[in-house]
Amino acid sequence: MDSNYNMPPQDFSSGEALEEQKSRLTRRFISGILVGFLLSMMVVAGVYIFFFLGRRMGLSGPSGSLTGSGAGASGELLSDSTLKKIRVLEDTIDTYYYKTDIDKEQEAVGIYKGLMDSLGDPYSVYYTEEELDELLSDTAGVYYGIGAYVSMDDDMGMPRISGVIPGTPAERAELQIDDIIYLVDDEPTQGLEVSDVVTMIKGPEGTKVHLTLLRGSKREEVEVDVERSAVEVPTVTTKMLGEKEDIGYLQITEFDEVTPDQFTEGMAELREKDMKGLIIDLRSNPGGSLAAVCDIARQILPKGIIVYTVDRDGNRDDYTCDGKREIDIPVVVLVNQYSASASEILAGAIKDYQLGKLVGMKTFGKGIVQRIFDLKDGTAVKLTVSDYYTPAGNNIHGVGIEPDVEVEYDADAYSKDKTDNQLEKAIDVMQDMLDN
Fold this sequence. Notes:
The protein is an alpha+beta fold. The protein contains 12 helices and 19 strands. The chain is 32% helix and 24% strand. A hairpin with a 4-residue loop joins strand 7 and strand 8. It folds into 2 domains: 1-61 and 74-98 and 234-436, 2-enoyl-CoA Hydratase, Chain A, domain 1 (Alpha-Beta Complex); 142-232, Pdz3 Domain (Roll), CATH 2.30.42.10. Helix 8 runs parallel beside helix 9 and helix 9 (290-297) runs parallel beside helix 10. The chain has helices at residues 18-29, 33-52, 80-96, 104-117, 129-138, 169-172, 194-201, 259-272, 290-297, 342-352, 411-417, 421-435, and strands at 125-127, 142-145, 148-153, 158-164, 180-184, 187-188, 208-215, 220-227, 229-232, 236-241, 247-252, 277-281, 304-311, 316-321, 331-335, 357-360, 368-374, 380-389, 405-406.
């Protein structure tokens, strides 16, 4: 998958055929049907009042005056003054804007998106029908692109390669983790959302995308053409490491619905190879499904709480583990500044239970949960609905989780000879745990 832009714990679906997507979306949204229905009714009612009754109510045009603005005294959004101001803005645009081909549907979308933006929460968003289809396509398990994970680099303010899927065009083109995507087909990415850049990179099978990358600490410019193809998205990969090849390595790139089964299969493969210790690589894992990470945690943790959530009314939901499959070998977890959300749930629980050691850099710090609500017209909204806490009662939102052993990633070393210094440190830490 090309995108890992801020998928929160409850909104990341996973691979299924197109015919299955509708039923899976229905199941995923079932808890939000009532709210979605009410929201859609509000929108319909608002549109009806505004567009059909507005002129009959004598709402002013561009020459009219406003006696107030914003919500009414009752705090109601669709107050007379709000509707009146929207009408004035629309009429002003229609009268004076220098272009006449104004897309009314796009104007309406702007209102919906603006309403969500007003929350000041980057994780609460409005999805148009096309965006929702794109979300389903992203999580369908197969898509047409280059096979690279993309996230935002906070220092550069531009997208970066956060992972490369083995056997894909991205790997064949030798794209590297931490490559900054400077241009896509000579179009700058500065100021764009990750989702916009991902859309630019994706395309029909067999076509090419021209990427201009900034690589290494010196930000050397690299240009490469990558041919798009069908990409199957594995979320779990495994291999054996160490001098004795007795250290199991299991990387989780994101937490989709298919990930627990892939994790189970991966662990079985490593067990068959007689692994003595396990390294779980959560670096640049943006998160995903809360249910998926809890299913995986139940294959590792002792009896107790995995994570708990608290909503705005103080209602608490505990996600627990029965401890029947607690792991019986040493564990090391690799994390970095792009490990977020569901990956922090797993890393935080392992750390709180002192089940293993964390190696790498402090995690992203996303301790909130989102839910998607179907508006029943092909569109949807994603809303932050609660905070989550680690078993020890820590809310890591905006704080992150500190590693036990801090190691900054050496991009230059990897660029030179594929040396992954963080992974090498994790192997050293694991070897010490095995020796002691």
